[in-house]
Amino acid sequence: MLKGIIIKGISGFYYVEVGDQLYECKARGLFRKKNITPLVGDRVSISVVDEDEKKGVIEDIHKRVSELVRPPIANVEKVIITFSIKEPSPNMSLLDKFIIFSEKENLEIVIVLSKIDLDKDGEITRSIKEEFEKIGYKVITVSTVTGENIDKIIEELEDSISVFAGQSGVGKSSILNAIDPSFKLETAEISKKLGRGKHTTRHAELYKIGKNAIIADTPGFSSLELNNIEIEELQEYFVEFGQYADCRFGSKCIHKNEPGCGVKEAVEEGNISKRRYESYLHILDEINNLKGKFKRKL
């Protein structure tokens, strides 16, 4: 059998790259019986049924390092969370949600602020960059118009499988095209009526840059589900809370209404971003509403 990686999956066909060869494969029925679906990014073993036509069958899916649901990709190590400064304007709550999901999956996070050429005085860019760098996240500002910092994106992609994530129209496909024009990915014009981009990426697909970097372009999202996150769990994904969570009620404190809360004190003292804390409270209420019958009153 040959070993390779699934780079694309469409309508039950999986395209497996083995060295410099690409095989169109079907998955064994055994996977369906076990309720296992092959994912883009899966490292697999295949048997060849037609070498001339490059057709095969996926016989085995190797153990996954990670598994994302939205987008459905396996073995991602790093997420490049991309948000534009303008057109569309940054949805900070959505950015926080992307970070939550990335933290939950233990992915290395890099935040990319795109279209900085539209921020004439640079104030929006500086404000967002400072907020997230203070937390400890790496932030890269880029422009596909001027080419600024595209080289830094390439450096971040080395020696890993990375996924680009972010709302539609923020420039993910444009950045990939700037990295390598041969990708020729479809890009979207921003709908003036909706203020957001059209979904141009229809499925997850992996692209290779040189020998050591594999990146994924994925469908854009306008919302993220929170029903798989528990109330007490949420604070773990606001990583800046950790050093200040010396609260009177200890680990039972959810940093909302409890007295003697170290996180709330840190917000008042300016050590934790007030915007981030308010975002946390908003998402906390969102989760509580989704749970419906959650017994604990917030």
UniProtKB/TrEMBL annotation:
GO molecular function: GTP binding; GTPase activity; metal ion binding; rRNA binding
Subunit structure: Monomer. Associates with 30S ribosomal subunit, binds 16S rRNA.
Protease listed as a keyword: no
Gene source species: Peptostreptococcus russellii
Co-factor note (free text): Binds 1 zinc ion per subunit.
Pfam families per the UniProt record, alphabetical: RsgA_GTPase, RsgA_N
Keyword terms, alphabetized: Cytoplasm, GTP-binding, Hydrolase, Metal-binding, Nucleotide-binding, Ribosome biogenesis, RNA-binding, rRNA-binding, Zinc
Annotated positions binding GTP: 114-117, 166-174
Protein name, as recorded: Small ribosomal subunit biogenesis GTPase RsgA
PROSITE patterns, A to Z: ENGC_GTPASE (PS50936), G_CP (PS51721)
Cofactor annotation: Zn(2+)
Domain CP-type G positions: 65-224
Any coiled-coil regions, as ranges: none
Subcellular location: Cytoplasm
Entry GO terms, CC: cytoplasm
PANTHER family, sorted: SMALL RIBOSOMAL SUBUNIT BIOGENESIS GTPASE RSGA (PTHR32120), SMALL RIBOSOMAL SUBUNIT BIOGENESIS GTPASE RSGA 1, MITOCHONDRIAL-RELATED (PTHR32120:SF11)
Record-linked InterPro entries: G_CP_dom, NA-bd_OB-fold, P-loop_NTPase, Ribosome_biogen_GTPase_RsgA, RsgA_GTPase_dom, RsgA_N
Domain EngC GTPase: 74-222
Statement: the UniProt record of this protein carries the keyword Chloroplast: no
GO process annotations (BP): ribosomal small subunit biogenesis
Binding site for Zn(2+): 247, 253, 255, 261
The EC number(s) this enzyme carries: 3.6.1.-
